[in-house]
Amino acid sequence: MIEAVGLHKSFGDTHALAGLDLDVAEGTILGVLGPNGAGKTTAVRVLTTLTRPDAGHATVAGIDVLRHPSEVRAKIGVAGQYAALDELLTGRENLRMVGRLYRVSTSDVRRRADELLERFELTDAADRTVKTYSGGMRRRLDLGAALMAQPPVIFLDEPTTGLDPKGRLSMWDLIAGLARSGTTVLMTTQYLEEADQLADDIVVIDHGRVIARGSADDLKRQVGGERLEITISDAPWLDMARTVLEAFGEGPARVHEEERRVSVAVASHDGVLTRAIRELDAAGVHVDDIGFRRPTLDEVFLSLTGRGVVEPAEVEA
Asked: What residue segments make up the domains of the chain, in order of their start?
């Protein structure tokens, strides 16, 4: 439903896109993950006809983005990083206005607006002006506006930026529901947990190109298998704990001094935990906690890019 091949876009000396390739299957959620400046928003702007690429081509719902932009716009809904709403209109009026812009019939506009207000739990606030809405309510209304014409493809550019944890979870439920109903979703995000929870497939973008792709589990396997991790009682024993664990692992151990944690990649579970406990005890290392865990997407991202994701500051929803 969405395909991009060799997209390039520069702004002066800045190469926002440097040969970006991606595709999204019908009825799935693609999570586009990357730090600030990676090219996520520029990619969305190209795919939604708001920016022309310098090179490459793209199609949405089988329609060429450059040759037939108006036809593409009729097939998509877009919710950007900031809610695109008229604050002087009510929630109901905003939805009806968007429906008219999509040339939805008057009767269908009214029906559809009422359906979306109920779906997004905004019925009680439907006739209040948007300037009185909280951040979370604006986000839900903005997503509702993107769905007014029931488009088969939705682009969500960092849809939960600025939401508190409760608001973010509510938005996650709504986005997951879109895919269950058959809508194709491309979602950019800086929240690693968001990609892990929602996306059927994830692409990691850095410096304007895809550097990795797969499910969350696929990407975690690229970093390595499970890790044996311990938390010790006394920080002065961290070096000894590292020495002991490295005898059981593959490669160097990672030490987190503030949390008094040491971890190392291991090939298998077979007898490792028992032997590690025995060796640590013999070395005089007092262990508060020990166990196996999978790599996190944070670790995947750090391994792939050499830098972390800078998450936007959260505000009250």
From this structure: 2-221, 226-293
**pTM score, whole prediction:** 0.78
How far is the C-alpha of 113 from the C-alpha of 251, rounded, in Å?
57
Say if CB 19 and CB 56 are below 8 A apart. yes
Going by DSSP bridges, is the β-strand pair 29-33/184-189 parallel, antiparallel, or unpaired?
Answer: parallel
Q: Which CATH architecture has domain 2-221?
A: 3-Layer(aba) Sandwich (3.40)
CATH assignment, 226-293:
3.30.70.100
- How many C-beta atoms lie closer than 10 Å to residue 15's C-beta? 17
Q: What is the CA radius of gyration of the chain?
A: 24
Q: In what order do the strands lie in the sheet with 227-232?
A: 254-256, 261-265, 227-232, 287-293
Q: DSSP letters of 6-44?
A: EEEEEETTEEEEEEEEEEE-TT-EEEEE--TTSSHHHHH
| Residue 1 near residue 201 (C-beta atoms within 8 A) | no
Q: Bridge partners of 266?
A: none
β-sheet bridge partners, residue 290: 230
Q: Which residues pair with 256 in a beta bridge?
A: 261
Reading the chain (317 residues) residue by residue, the pLDDT tens digits are 999 999 999 999 999 999 999 999 999 999 999 888 889 999 999 999 999 999 999 999 999 999 999 999 999 999 987 778 999 999 999 999 999 999 999 989 999 999 999 989 999 999 999 999 998 899 899 999 999 999 999 999 988 887 888 888 888 998 999 999 999 999 998 888 888 899 999 999 999 999 999 988 888 777 666 788 999 999 999 999 999 999 988 878 889 898 999 988 887 778 888 999 999 999 999 999 999 887 777 777 777 776 655 544 333 33
In the structure encoding, which two tokens stand for residue 60, read together?
Answer: 């949405």
232 contacts: CB under 8 Å, gap ≥ 6: 238, 241, 260, 261, 262, 285, 286, 287, 288
Tokens of 102: 């999509």
